[in-house]
Amino acid sequence: MYYGKLVCLRPLEISDLDEVMRYQNDWNLRRWAGVPLPKSRPSVEQWLEKVVVLDPIRDGTMVLAIIDKKTGVFLGITRFYDLKVPHYRASLGIGIQNPDNRSKGYGTDATLVMLWIAFNVLGLHSVYLDTMEHNKQAIHVAEKSGFKRVGMFRETEFIDGEFKGLVYLDILSREFFEKYPPGIPIGNP
Ligand SMILES: CC(C)(COP(=O)(O)OP(=O)(O)OC[C@H]1O[C@@H](n2cnc3c(N)ncnc32)[C@H](O)[C@@H]1OP(=O)(O)O)[C@@H](O)C(=O)NCCC(=O)NCCS
Question: Domain count of the chain?
Answer without folding.
Answer: 1
